[in-house]
Protein backbone atom coordinates (compact mmCIF):
# COMPACT_ATOMS: atom_id res chain seq x y z
CA UNK A 1 0.00 0.00 0.00
CA UNK A 2 1.77 3.08 -1.23
CA UNK A 3 1.94 5.90 -3.68
CA UNK A 4 3.60 4.71 -6.86
CA UNK A 5 6.83 6.65 -6.46
CA UNK A 6 10.36 5.20 -6.80
CA UNK A 7 11.29 6.19 -3.21
CA UNK A 8 8.58 3.84 -1.90
CA UNK A 9 10.51 0.84 -3.29
CA UNK A 10 7.54 -1.00 -4.77
CA UNK A 11 9.76 -2.19 -7.62
CA UNK A 12 12.38 -3.55 -5.20
CA UNK A 13 9.73 -5.45 -3.25
CA UNK A 14 8.18 -6.90 -6.40
CA UNK A 15 11.61 -7.86 -7.77
CA UNK A 16 12.09 -9.76 -4.51
CA UNK A 17 8.70 -11.44 -4.94
CA UNK A 18 9.66 -12.61 -8.42
CA UNK A 19 12.93 -14.11 -7.13
CA UNK A 20 11.22 -15.85 -4.21
CA UNK A 21 9.54 -19.21 -3.84
CA UNK A 22 6.45 -17.37 -2.56
CA UNK A 23 3.52 -18.15 -4.84
CA UNK A 24 0.61 -16.77 -2.82
CA UNK A 25 -1.07 -13.62 -4.09
CA UNK A 26 0.77 -10.36 -3.56
CA UNK A 27 -1.67 -7.45 -3.46
CA UNK A 28 -0.29 -4.13 -4.66
CA UNK A 29 -2.56 -1.33 -3.52
CA UNK A 30 -2.28 2.23 -4.71
CA UNK A 31 -3.09 4.42 -7.68
CA UNK A 32 -0.99 2.86 -10.43
CA UNK A 33 -2.36 5.28 -13.05
CA UNK A 34 0.89 7.21 -13.16
CA UNK A 35 3.91 6.92 -15.44
CA UNK A 36 5.80 4.89 -12.82
CA UNK A 37 2.70 2.86 -11.95
CA UNK A 38 2.11 1.84 -15.58
CA UNK A 39 5.80 0.94 -15.84
CA UNK A 40 5.51 -1.39 -12.80
CA UNK A 41 2.25 -2.92 -13.94
CA UNK A 42 3.77 -3.68 -17.33
CA UNK A 43 7.05 -5.01 -15.85
CA UNK A 44 5.23 -7.51 -13.62
CA UNK A 45 2.29 -8.41 -15.89
CA UNK A 46 3.58 -11.96 -16.48
CA UNK A 47 3.44 -12.86 -12.78
CA UNK A 48 -0.07 -14.06 -11.96
CA UNK A 49 0.41 -13.87 -8.21
CA UNK A 50 1.19 -10.12 -8.35
CA UNK A 51 -2.16 -8.33 -8.40
CA UNK A 52 -2.46 -4.58 -8.89
CA UNK A 53 -5.73 -3.63 -7.19
CA UNK A 54 -5.54 0.11 -7.68
CA UNK A 55 -6.35 2.71 -5.07
CA UNK A 56 -8.51 1.69 -2.11
CA UNK A 57 -9.74 4.31 0.35
CA UNK A 58 -12.07 2.33 2.60
CA UNK A 59 -10.12 2.24 5.87
CA UNK A 60 -12.01 -0.81 7.12
CA UNK A 61 -11.07 -2.78 4.01
CA UNK A 62 -7.46 -1.59 4.23
CA UNK A 63 -7.18 -2.48 7.90
CA UNK A 64 -8.60 -5.94 7.24
CA UNK A 65 -6.15 -6.51 4.40
CA UNK A 66 -3.29 -5.51 6.68
CA UNK A 67 -4.51 -7.66 9.58
CA UNK A 68 -5.11 -10.80 7.53
CA UNK A 69 -1.92 -10.53 5.48
CA UNK A 70 1.07 -12.69 6.26
CA UNK A 71 3.42 -9.75 5.66
CA UNK A 72 2.97 -6.05 5.07
CA UNK A 73 5.79 -4.44 3.09
CA UNK A 74 6.55 -0.81 3.87
CA UNK A 75 9.12 0.52 1.43
CA UNK A 76 8.89 4.23 2.25
CA UNK A 77 12.25 5.96 2.58
CA UNK A 78 11.34 9.66 2.85
CA UNK A 79 10.06 11.63 5.80
CA UNK A 80 9.45 11.01 9.45
CA UNK A 81 6.69 8.93 10.98
CA UNK A 82 4.62 7.63 8.08
CA UNK A 83 0.86 7.37 8.72
CA UNK A 84 0.52 4.18 6.66
CA UNK A 85 3.18 2.54 8.84
CA UNK A 86 1.26 3.49 11.98
CA UNK A 87 -1.94 2.14 10.41
CA UNK A 88 -0.18 -1.17 9.69
CA UNK A 89 1.03 -1.35 13.29
CA UNK A 90 -2.46 -0.57 14.59
CA UNK A 91 -3.92 -3.23 12.28
CA UNK A 92 -1.63 -5.85 13.82
CA UNK A 93 0.26 -6.52 10.61
CA UNK A 94 3.63 -8.25 10.56
CA UNK A 95 5.84 -5.63 8.95
CA UNK A 96 8.81 -5.87 6.63
CA UNK A 97 10.16 -2.34 6.22
CA UNK A 98 12.85 -0.66 4.19
CA UNK A 99 15.92 -0.32 6.39
CA UNK A 100 16.21 3.40 7.09
CA UNK A 101 16.31 5.67 10.11
CA UNK A 102 12.65 6.70 9.83
CA UNK A 103 11.26 3.16 9.83
CA UNK A 104 13.74 1.93 12.47
CA UNK A 105 12.84 4.89 14.67
CA UNK A 106 9.22 3.77 14.72
CA UNK A 107 9.50 -0.02 14.57
CA UNK A 108 12.75 -0.49 16.49
CA UNK A 109 13.52 -4.25 16.52
CA UNK A 110 9.93 -5.30 15.84
CA UNK A 111 10.08 -5.82 12.08
CA UNK A 112 12.01 -7.42 9.29
CA UNK A 113 14.19 -4.98 7.37
CA UNK A 114 15.32 -5.01 3.77
CA UNK A 115 17.62 -2.95 1.57
CA UNK A 116 17.45 -4.89 -1.69
CA UNK A 117 15.39 -7.44 -3.60
CA UNK A 118 17.38 -10.43 -2.31
CA UNK A 119 16.58 -9.46 1.27
CA UNK A 120 12.89 -9.21 0.31
CA UNK A 121 13.17 -12.71 -1.19
CA UNK A 122 14.70 -14.07 2.00
CA UNK A 123 11.96 -12.51 4.14
CA UNK A 124 9.24 -13.98 1.92
CA UNK A 125 10.84 -17.43 1.88
CA UNK A 126 11.42 -17.68 5.62
CA UNK A 127 8.88 -15.55 7.51
CA UNK A 128 5.43 -16.27 8.83
CA UNK A 129 3.20 -14.01 10.88
CA UNK A 130 2.33 -16.81 13.32
CA UNK A 131 6.02 -17.14 14.23
CA UNK A 132 6.45 -13.42 14.93
CA UNK A 133 3.38 -12.43 16.91
CA UNK A 134 5.60 -10.87 19.59
CA UNK A 135 6.62 -8.19 17.05
CA UNK A 136 3.00 -7.66 16.05
CA UNK A 137 1.99 -7.25 19.70
CA UNK A 138 4.95 -4.96 20.48
CA UNK A 139 4.03 -2.69 17.57
CA UNK A 140 0.40 -2.57 18.64
CA UNK A 141 1.51 -1.69 22.18
CA UNK A 142 3.67 1.11 20.75
CA UNK A 143 0.59 2.50 18.99
CA UNK A 144 -1.30 2.50 22.28
CA UNK A 145 1.52 3.96 24.37
CA UNK A 146 3.48 6.23 22.03
CA UNK A 147 1.54 7.03 18.90
CA UNK A 148 -1.94 7.85 20.11
CA UNK A 149 -3.51 11.28 19.71
CA UNK A 150 -3.83 12.05 23.43
CA UNK A 151 -0.11 11.54 24.01
CA UNK A 152 0.90 13.37 20.84
CA UNK A 153 -1.40 16.31 21.63
CA UNK A 154 -0.02 16.51 25.16
CA UNK A 155 3.54 16.56 23.80
CA UNK A 156 2.63 19.43 21.48
CA UNK A 157 1.00 21.31 24.36
CA UNK A 158 4.13 20.89 26.49
CA UNK A 159 6.28 22.10 23.62
CA UNK A 160 4.07 25.17 23.10
CA UNK A 161 4.09 25.94 26.85
CA UNK A 162 7.89 25.74 26.99
CA UNK A 163 8.17 27.91 23.88
CA UNK A 164 5.77 30.47 25.34
CA UNK A 165 7.69 30.51 28.64
CA UNK A 166 10.98 31.11 26.77
CA UNK A 167 9.37 33.86 24.73
CA UNK A 168 8.05 35.54 27.87
CA UNK A 169 11.45 35.32 29.57
CA UNK A 170 13.22 36.76 26.52
CA UNK A 171 10.78 39.66 26.16
CA UNK A 172 10.99 40.51 29.90
CA UNK A 173 14.77 40.84 29.73
CA UNK A 174 14.67 43.45 26.98
Question: What are its keywords?
Answer:
3-stranded parallel β-sheet, 174 residues, mainly alpha
Report on the structure:
- The protein is mainly alpha-helical and 174 residues long.
- The protein is 53% helix and 11% strand.
- The protein contains eight helices and five strands.
- The chain has helices at 10-19, 35-43, 59-68, 83-90, 101-107, 117-126, 133-145, 149-173, and strands at 26-29, 50-54, 72-74, 95-98, 112-114.
- The strands form two sheets. Strands 3-4-5 form a three-stranded parallel β-sheet, with helices on both faces.
- Helix 2 links the parallel strand 1 and strand 2.
- The longest helix has 25 residues, at 149-173.
- The N and C termini lie far apart (53 Å).
Topology:
Elements: H1 10-19, E1 26-29, H2 35-43, E2 50-54, H3 59-68, E3 72-74, H4 83-90, E4 95-98, H5 101-107, E5 112-114, H6 117-126, H7 133-145, H8 149-173
Parallel strand pairs: 1-2, 3-4, 4-5
Helix pairs in contact: 1-6
Q: Runs with pLDDT <50, length 5+?
A: none
State the end-to-end distance: 53 Å
Radius of gyration: 19 Å
Q: Average the pLDDT over all residues and give the rounded result.
A: 94
Q: What is the H/E order?
A: HEHEHEHEHEHHH
Beta fraction of the residues? 5-15%
The description of the largest β-sheet is: 3 strands, parallel
Question: Which geometry do the CA atoms define?
Answer: elongated
Q: Taking strands numbered 1, 2, ... along the chain, how are they ordered across the largest sheet?
A: 3-4-5
Structural class designation: mainly alpha
Number of alpha- plus pi-helical segments? 8
| DSSP strand tally | 5
Helix content: 40-55%
Amino acid sequence: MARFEPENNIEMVLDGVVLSEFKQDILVIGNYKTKFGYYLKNKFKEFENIKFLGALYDIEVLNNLRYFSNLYFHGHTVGGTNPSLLEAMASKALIAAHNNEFNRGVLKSNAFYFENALEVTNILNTSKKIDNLHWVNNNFEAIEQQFNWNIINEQYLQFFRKSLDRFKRNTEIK
